[in-house]
Structures are given as C-alpha cells and as structure tokens.
Amino acid sequence: MSVSASSTISTPIVANSATRILQAAMAVCFGMIIVGFVGFSHIEIVHNAAHDTRHANAFPCH
C-alpha cells in the first residue's frame, strides 16, 4: 500500500500600498478617537481610570 504525500506551498499575502495606507489611516483615526475621548472626557470614571497613564506619557489632561 503506497501513501502519497501532497505538499502545499503557501504564498504570503502581500498588501498593496493603498491597503497599507488605509490601514495606517484607520489606526491613526482610531487612536485619536481614543486619546480624545479619554484625554478630554468629563466623565470622572473615565478620567480617573487613565489619569496616571496619561501623566506618565506627558499627555496633559487638565
């Protein structure tokens, strides 16, 4: 009884430059939303939860 082994060669998926630019832009927008919400939130719980981290990274919140 013979067993044949089939091998599959996987090729990496290469993103084009437009896809990379879109991903980078979305990451920047998402980051700005998070920083803007947490950094300038008037909700006391949100402000206090991130207070020490913001000051440790020199991000003003007052």
TrEMBL record:
Keywords tagged on the record: Membrane, Plasmid, Transmembrane, Transmembrane helix
Highest rank taxon of the organism: Bacteria
Database matches in Pfam families: CbtB
Membrane-spanning ranges: 20-40
NCBIfam families tied to this protein: CbtB
Name of protein: CbtB-domain containing protein
Origin species: Rhizobium sullae
